[in-house]
Design a protein that fits this description.
Blueprint (H helix, E strand, L loop, with lengths): L17 H35 L3
Length: 55
């Protein structure tokens, strides 16, 4: 492949689009929520598992 067959890469915009920023924030919040739910579920099942052997 020669250099002339590659398309030029456009320069990134000076500021990201507000839509992109909103999507980025939403994805971050959703990841935090999933992590919190996973931690709650892990604590629940750990409690269930450790309570089985105490009878």
């Amino acid at each position: 492949m020669t250099q002339s067959s590659l398309a030029p890469v456009p320069d990134p915009p000076a500021e990201p689009s507000p839509v992109v920023v909103d999507l980025y924030q939403m994805v971050g919040e959703m990841a935090d929520r999933v992590s919190a739910r996973r931690g709650t579920a892990n604590a629940f099942f750990l409690g269930c598992g450790s309570s089985e052997g105490t009878n």
